[in-house]
Design brief:
Jelly Rolls; 2 domains; two-stranded antiparallel ribbon; disordered C terminus; transmembrane helix; transmembrane
Length: 536
């Protein structure tokens, strides 16, 4: 059993100025690098910089499309027949020098009921997509699948009928192949829809994402402009609140050369046929340049290296063996008296003189592990707790788009990072105790923890290799710092180098705990048992 007296004695032995200075310096490095990153990033615009759309729940979203709309009362129905959906992708691979026809998988065209034209306002939409069939989506994060099949087979002879029916806050989406037999895709609640909402046709298309190989197979994402065009007829609206059709962009549009000189986004009506073209996206994404919270913790690698080296060497020190055998080491050097058991130390803390191995009792090894973990946890807590809110505040003041982080998520990241650093410190200490060679323990600890974390944080290795490293090594624990969310209806580079860990935070922490237990348990058991005889 670890007593308060034993822990205090080991803390007293541990707190050499050099060790404390190293921990403080490592924590200050995390803070300094994070603040320098924030101060070095700023956005300047001619006039006020545009802000990312914010949904009703406070999250940053993507909300940019062309909208041909009119007023709709508290009860109403819009029905359309869709006969075509086409698109354009600019400068695609392999040579990045051509404009080609095509649709990205989540290009969208269809009908929508929305709380006005303000970006981020609530909505429900029924649409045809580029590669995922008919979908009903609402309030940015929610996606309901309808019938499968792409838009390639659409025509006047093989159309797709779409219908949205509103009753207060309830919206029902239905689809049909012939306009007579309908199937319900979904019924959803769009909280806060005003008595007079906006209803109409829309088109949007997110950027085309491709990956460029770098390093030893890593990938850097590249995004190109795309546009989607939907063709509709037999458009009917029941329950219209008055006024005519109006066409406008939700968000900025018609600024690229393609839109200026080739095909401007917009809506055109001719002989009862309406053609709507648009670019952008409606979904849980925000701007492509949004900074995630974990980017402010880029100095963690330095602190991790310092912690690993410091405590692997501490665990490998032969001071206890020297103390239990002779007041001097074989080469004549005096031992550190703070590592010699105190004259009044309980007998249970002193190993038997003829005990094999390290010369400190199991209780002392365990107590030192607790001290190592506790000291590192406090240092990590201070470092992450200072830099995360401060750096995010500086980024926002500089006009840099920042992915939103709730207070609870921020606490989870700060405490989780401190816990991971503490576990890495205990793991390194245990390796030092087991291997008894400081440089060997340091090399192994770095190879297990720091190297996987470093090579997966950058686009250096193939994504598959990075994912496996972060599943199978102790570096999996750093998944606790992830704040980005992966959405199936958003195409993105979901890889470790982009801030996406293959395991959830709790699972990554469990992997690190398992490694730490596998090392510390034999390290403690390998130590000699304490002498049971009373001291005379």
């Amino acid at each position: 059993m670890l007593t308060r007296q034993l822990l205090h004695r080991q803390w007293t032995a541990f707190r050499r100025p050099a060790r404390l200075i190293a921990l403080v310096a490592a924590a200050l490095a995390v803070i300094a690098i994070g603040l320098l990153f924030a101060l070095g990033n700023q956005v300047s615009c001619d006039g006020p910089c545009p802000r990312d759309p914010v949904a009703a729940d406070g999250s940053t979203v993507g909300d940019r499309f062309w909208f041909l709309h009119r007023d709709l009362g508290p009860r109403g129905v819009i029905t359309v027949r869709m006969t075509s959906m086409t698109g354009t992708i600019t400068y695609p691979p392999p040579d990045h020098d051509r404009i080609v026809p095509g649709l990205v998988p989540w290009a969208k065209a269809g009908i929508i009921i929305k709380d006005g034209v303000r970006q981020g306002s609530s909505y429900a939409a029924l649409m045809m997509t580029g590669a995922h069939g008919v979908r009903m989506q609402y309030d940015y994060r929610h996606d309901v699948a309808g019938s499968a099949g792409g838009p390639g087979g659409l025509s006047a002879r093989s159309p797709r009928w779409l219908r949205l029916a509103r009753s207060g806050d309830t919206v029902t989406g239905s689809e049909s192949a012939d306009g007579r037999r309908w199937s319900t895709v979904g019924t959803v609640t769009v909280a806060g829809l005003p008595e007079t909402a906006q209803v109409g046709l829309f088109a949007t298309s997110p950027g085309d994402l491709t990956l460029r190989e770098v390093g030893l197979g890593g990938a850097v994402e590249e995004v190109r402009f795309t546009q989607a065009t939907g063709v509709f007829d037999h458009v009917t609206v029941e329950g219209a609140a008055g006024g005519g059709w109006r066409g406008e962009a939700v968000g900025e549009m018609n600024r690229t050369d393609w839109e200026k000189y080739h095909n401007a986004s917009g809506a055109v009506e001719k002989d009862g046929v309406i053609t709507v073209s648009g670019t952008g996206d409606i979904g849980p994404s925000g701007s492509e340049g949004g900074v995630s919270a974990e980017r402010t913790l880029s100095g963690l690698l330095i602190m991790l290296i310092v912690v690993v080296a410091l405590f692997a060497r501490f665990g490998a020190r032969p001071d206890a063996r020297r103390a239990s055998r002779t007041p001097e080491t074989p080469d004549g050097a005096r031992p550190d008296i703070r590592d010699v058991p105190a004259p009044d130390a309980p007998a249970s803390d002193v190993p038997a003189p003829d005990a094999p191995g390290a010369g400190v009792s199991r209780r002392v090894v365990a107590a030192r592990a607790v001290v190592v973990g506790g000291a590192t946890f406090v240092a990590g807590l201070v470092a992450a707790g200072v830099v995360l809110p401060a750096a995010l505040a500086i980024l926002r003041d500089n006009g840099v788009p920042v992915q939103p982080v709730t207070a609870l998520t921020g606490v989870r990241v700060v405490v989780g990072v401190a816990a991971v650093l503490a576990l890495c410190a205990v793991l390194s200490y245990g390796l030092g105790v087991l291997l008894r060679r400081g440089w060997v323990a340091i090399a192994l600890a770095l190879a297990l923890v720091a190297v996987p974390y470093a090579v997966t944080a950058a686009p250096f290795l193939p994504d598959a290799a990075s994912r496996w490293l972060l599943r199978l090594t102790p570096a999996a624990g750093f998944a606790v710092q992830q704040t980005a969310v992966e959405y199936p209806q958003v195409v993105a580079h979901y890889a470790p180098s982009a801030g996406y860990f293959p395991l959830p935070g709790w699972a990554g922490l469990a992997v690190l705990c398992a490694y730490t237990l596998m090392v510390v348990w034999p390290a403690v058991n390998r130590a000699p048992r304490a002498r049971t005889a009373s001291r005379r």
